[in-house]
Amino acid sequence: MKLSLDWLSDFVAFTETNPQKIAEAITLSVAEVEEVEEQGALLGHCVVGKVDTIKKHPNADKLSLCIVLTEQGKKNVVCGGTNLRQGMLVAFAHVGARVKWHGGEMMELAKTKIRGEESEGMICSSSELDLTEQFPTTDDHHIIDLGDDGYNIGTPLKAALQLDDIVFHIDNHAITNRADLFSHIGFARECVAIGLGKWKKKPEVSPPKFGKGTIPFTFVVDAPKLMPRYLSTLIEIDGIGETPDWMKKRLRSVGWRPISLPIDITNYVATEIGVPLHSFDADDIAGTVHMRTSKKGEKIVTLDHQERSLPEEGLVLSDDKGIFDLLGIMGGLRSSTKDTTKRIYLHSATLDPLSIRRTIIATGHRTDAATVYEKGVPPITTEQGFYRAAGLMLELIPGARIVSKLESKGENGTPKKIIFSLEHASSILGRTISQKEASKIFSDLGCTVAGIGNVFTITPPLHRIGDMKESIDLVEEVARIAGFKSFEEELPTASILPPERDCRVNSLRNSLKEEGCIETVQFAFLGEELLMRSKTNDRSRLREIENPIGEDMKFMRPSLLPRLLEYGSDTMRLTSEDLKIFEIGHIFTNAEEHQSLTLLVAQVHSGGLKDDPLLSAKEAFKAACGAMGYAIRTHRNDSPSSVMHPGRTANVFIGERKIGELYEVHPEVAKNFGFPHRVAVVSIELDILLSLQTTENTYKHLFEFPSIAYDATIVFDPATPVGPFLEKVEGMHEFLREVKLVDLFEKEGKRHLTVRCTYNAGDRTLKEEEVKPIQEKVEALLRT
User: pTM of this prediction?
Assistant: First the structure.
């Protein structure tokens, strides 16, 4: 964004005259000034010259020998300009001038010979003098043409072109919450508030006198919340007129290209007041006008002659012929003002910033107007801009007269009164803020200040109702206007002792990795299609996102499982090893949010019973819990969910507290994701697990004497639980130190388990005849 110092000076009598210091003050308190541009900085030693004679260069086909009339007399010049003609007025640079050679590297002109002919200066193109905005061209050999009359020979070029302004280039990224600062009046207010000057002319705009007629069409607002404020009227004109030089100069200084007077007026007001406006040719509008939202696929040809497909719910104006304006972005070509326009429909509106931003993203079309509208133009600014534009049209356009009543809907809003405590503000800012200082700051910002003592009631001005909402906003205003340099540079003090940490999650994570599991970290969002495939699409539990990135990110995840299934199925295609993956993260439902752990085990090749994913998942999780100090047990689950295999599911307990489920994924779900074989899952509510007391791990001395171990293979019915039998055997005899399942396979419909029993006396080496009777009793018990 560009600001003209000359334009600002219409409103502010600057007490600080150094542009660099003005820029520094604005940077420290308002917004960063990236560059201070002095117009015509390259125009020293440059004057208006007149081409007296032209003849061909004897040694170069593309060069000409010219005699140029200047204030220093006649100058011989070698020039390669393709548009040279005798009698034309040109931009002439004397010896000693600094120019950009063909728009590139800077160089100082000296008297020289070019192909054997003397040259005493340069006839310049716009790129060589950095004047491309004023004299646009695509040909570096096309010199600046000042016409054949209108300038005196020898007039300094800077004076002739009225390039005497200072332009501040503002980085607007830091002021996205300040819609009022996208204007010269907004920055004029700031310049007064930070002490750079005093008001010369306060920005007050009076409404013009409106007519008694009606606008020749009905205006219907179909979406009032998306356009809470608008004003319009009908202006008849005798002709569009010519934009005055002073307006052209100011528009060019801030980057606008003058087009035609009605359009230039709306651009001028947008830059001065801060609300983009549009002037329509009223005779091109037919029937009822609707302010509505677009349907996907509707089209409009915009002012840049581009046909654009519109997104769903973009803000548009349409009549009986179709859409004629893309509100807040760019006007339509059909309804634009032209040389033949006799009736102007002037329109100003406040628009919903979120809708504008969505349309920018959907169309990929960002304009200066859209950049302002997406910040949220205050309704009072909409009104002031409309009155200012109408007044300028009446003043400058030939025969302009307002023939209709004012069409106005909506209000300018009511500012919220905010309580401001000096004591609270001082505690936040780190220094005492006096009553006098605070009162002056708020008054200079246009606020109404009431109250006595250390507590004020502050009423923001209407142009600040969008960003002055809470007490902390006022504290920020005090800080920046008082000046950040006024606060002591004191580093805060704080303890550097590390906070207490619960390391159990890290222990669990590390233990699972030691068991061969790989941790994944995935998106916390997912779509309906993935929920359907994983059979976790219970609508009553889903938390939907209001503004999703896409359809595949529409919901917060109700479980870690869907993303693990998706990732696992993709990974299975690329590996020849069984898959063990897990994730620790938060899951979300309509009612709550909690931390969860899900472990998924899948087979690449179908193996034996010992390699069953369900047992592998159980063993991995059991070992990880053991490392944390928890002993888990499982019990059959009689109420499996739709994602669980109905016959292969169990609840997981620590003591009497259920912490999750162990199950095989339902075959249909496994098929949906393309898994070739069984898939097992352990799903744990981590918050419940961490709320339970751990058992401290104790370590026993290794046995000093050799142990005796027996393996016994027992046949079990698949429907018979093994756990209770092993529990019966444990502790049968003082010599029986360990009972461990070491192998498992199925044959002819029967389950074969190999159990290893280890014996040790602790004080001597046992003999086989001592152990064998015990082992026989153990085997008999196991087989019953």
Answer: 0.65
